[in-house]
Amino acid sequence: MQEEVKDKITEVVKEDIWGRIKDVLNYGFHFGEGDKAIDITLGLLILVIVSFLATSYILKGIRKLYTRRMSEVDTQKFISVFKFIKYIAYIIVVFAVLSLAGVNVTPVLAASAALLVGLGLALQDLFKDVIGGVFIIVDKSLLVGDVIEINGKVGRVIDIKLRTTRAITRDDKIFIVPNHKFISDTIYNYTQNHKTTREYVKVGVAYGSDTQLVKDLMLKSVTEDNRILKRPKPFVLFEDFGDSALVFSVYFFISDSFIDPGIKSDIRFKIDKLFREHKVTIPFPQRDVHLFTQNVESISSSNKTEIDNEKEKE
What we know:
The protein is an alpha+beta fold. It contains nine helices and ten strands. The protein has helices at about 1-25, 40-65, 70-100, 105-120, 125-140, 180-185, 210-225, 260-275, 295-314; strands at about 30, 40, 145-150, 155-160, 165-170, 175-180, 190, 195-205, 235-240, 245-255. Strand 4 and strand 5 form a beta hairpin. Helix 2 (about 40-65) packs antiparallel against helix 3 (about 70-100) and helix 7 (about 210-225) packs across helix 8 (about 260-275). The protein is elongated and about 130 Å long.
C-alpha cells in the first residue's frame, strides 16, 4: 500500500509539477525544425542570467583571493585587469548559451576570427597599451606616487589604468602616457628603490679663491635648510679647473625629488649671499683676444711697390 502511494506521488511530481515547470521554461520563440531549430525560451534567458551571475561571483572570489594580501592601492589597480577578464568571460558565456539554444556559432566564430585579425591590426597600439598596463600592475615597476622622467618631462604618477598612466608635472599640468611606452622606451623612475634622491648645485669661483672657504660656505648653504636630510650628510666636491673658474658642486639628499627645483633655487640664493659677504667672486666667462698690428706707412709703401712692379711687367 505504501509503495503504491509513493509511486503515485512520484508520478504526480514527474508528470504534473515537473511537467508544468518544463512547459514554463520552454515558453518562448521557436524557429525552424530538426537540426536547424532555434529555441529562444524563458529557460534559456534564466540560464544566461544565472551564468552571468555565477561568472561574476567566481571572478570576484578569485580577485579577492589573489589580492587579499595586497595594499589598497595595488588592489585598485587589479580591478581594471579583472574587468577586462570579466568581459572576455561574458563573451564566452554568450557563445555557449547560443550554442545550447541551437544556433550554429561556427560561422560566427569564423567571421569573428577574421574580424579580430583586422581589428587587431588596426588596434595593435591599443593592445600594446593594455599588455603594458598588465605588466606594470603585475611586476609593480611603477606605482602611484612615483616621480618619473619621460621625454624630458618630470611628473608624479597620480593614476595607473589598463591603457594609460597619468602624471602631474611641476607646473600642475597632466600628461598622459600610453602604457606601451614603459616597455619600449627608457623611463627614469626617481623613487623606484626609495624616496630619497641625491641632488647637487654647481658653481664656479675665480682662480685664486680660498678653496677651503668656498667648501665651508657651500656646506653652510645646505645645512640650514630643513628640507635637506641630515643623513646622509651633504658634501662638496672640487669638480674641475675650468676655463674661467674653479668648479665646485655641493651634493645633498632630499626625500621629495618632485620639489627639487625650488630647493636648488634657494640654495643658489644662499650661496650668492654668502659669497658676497666673504668676498668670494663668481667670475664671468673670460677669453683672451690677441691683436697683431703693423705700421701703416710700411704697409702703404709695400702696397705701392707691388703696384709699380705689376705696371712694369705690363
